Amino acid sequence: MTGEPASGASARIDHYVASFDDWRGDLLAHIRALIRQADADVVEEWKWDGPVWSRGGIICTGEVYKSAVKTTFAKGASLPDPAGLFNASLTGKTRRAIDFHNGVPIDEAAFMALIKAAIAHNLG
Description:
Blueprint: H1 6-18, H2 23-38, E1 43-47, E2 50-54, E3 58-64, E4 69-73, E5 96-100, H3 108-123
Antiparallel strand pairs: 1-2, 2-3, 3-4, 4-5
Helix pairs in contact: 2-3
């Protein structure tokens, strides 16, 4: 499945984030900002009915659930995670995920380091 062009995808992600009028929209917006801050060349795409961030390949997806906002790293099992952010999908051979919950602070430096590690792995 291919995604939308980046400009259309960014607008669609804007709409998607705004569609959540509670903590989940705010949290997804914050995660999105951290991803963009980690690397200005990250491309936003819309695939599988949700936001996807890529550079040299997929970095991660953004998913919204009732009790969590999740980022799933396509190649997370290959990434260093010294801060132990990965807390979901830990048994998969390739992917790893982070479930973010309402009111739990994000270790922003560690999260951006994971984004940068995913990009380095993709560009390898």
